[in-house]
Amino acid sequence: MKLFVDMGNSRVKWRLRGRDTVLEGEGAIGSDSLFADLPVDDEGIRQVAVSTVASDQGRQQLEQRLREITRVPPEYFWTESQWQGVICAYDKPESMGSDRWHAMVAAHSRVTGGFAVVDAGSAVTVDYVAADGRHLGGYILAGQNMMYRALSQDAARIHFGGRIQGDSAPGSSTAECVHHGVEWLWRGMVQQLREDVRTLGLEKVFITGGDSDRLIGCGLQGESVPGLVLDGLEIVAAGVRED
């Protein structure tokens, strides 16, 4: 069996691929329950492939949990200058989050034309790729929870509670001003995305990440692929093994 791990800033998603089965799960970084529901039969795990943007501490916590279920050391797959036709726009590819890279590799395998990848996690990342595989660059923005946390922690006199979703009209209370304001920003981001996709002549938009439904609710049209990063990690890990 092969274990593929997508480790973000706060959550870990995993996929266990056996001969005839594919199982998936997720959990919090540092949680004792991470991988607790991962079934390992007598065949055992032969490969552990990891895509991560986590800190060194997060990686150490991951490796500690992995040692409890397998003796196979994890292989980390980072962003490269190019992979099977996808060409990174960064001068220093290794400085780009591997989750973005693996999502682009997966998206490239699904479409013949240009595309956008939007990953709505703790942060929101947007990447544009031309039909010839050239990465045209992208954006990194604060995710919704990060926005709320910043307003709560860094602005002492802004007090709000609960969640008000789906409305961007001017607010008449502090809570409405905050929640509607975040919605207003996200709808603006979606509008800019639409304009970019049209201007660049991109064929498709792929949406992934824990807050993808919220983006879709703000009007972003595209294909939702929850496991896009894991899909790309599988492609890259398989290619390395073949070499």
TrEMBL record:
* Subcellular location, record wording: Cytoplasm
UniProt entry keywords in alphabetical sequence: ATP-binding, Coenzyme A biosynthesis, Cytoplasm, Kinase, Metal-binding, Nucleotide-binding, Potassium, Transferase
Q: Where along the chain is ATP bound?
A: D6, M7, G8, N9, S10, R11, V12, K13, S122
Residues where K(+) binds: D119
- Co-factor(s): K(+); NH4(+)
What does UniProt list as catalytic?
A: D99
Q: Which Pfam families match?
A: Pan_kinase
State the top-level EC class.
transferase
UniProt pathway: Cofactor biosynthesis; coenzyme A biosynthesis; CoA from (R)-pantothenate: step 1/5
Question: Mind telling me which SUPFAM superfamilies this protein's record contains?
Answer: Actin-like ATPase domain (SSF53067)
Which InterPro entries does UniProt cross-reference here? ATPase_NBD (IPR043129), Type_III_PanK (IPR004619)
Name the reaction it catalyses. (R)-pantothenate + ATP = (R)-4'-phosphopantothenate + ADP + H(+)
Give the GO molecular function terms: pantothenate kinase activity
Which EC number(s) does the record attach to this protein? 2.7.1.33
Residues recorded as binding substrate, renumbered to this chain, are Y90, G97, S98, D99, R100, T174
What start and end residues bound the annotated signal peptide?
Answer: none
Q: What does this protein do?
A: Catalyzes the phosphorylation of pantothenate (Pan), the first step in CoA biosynthesis.
| Quaternary assembly | Homodimer.
Q: Which protein are we looking at?
A: Type III pantothenate kinase
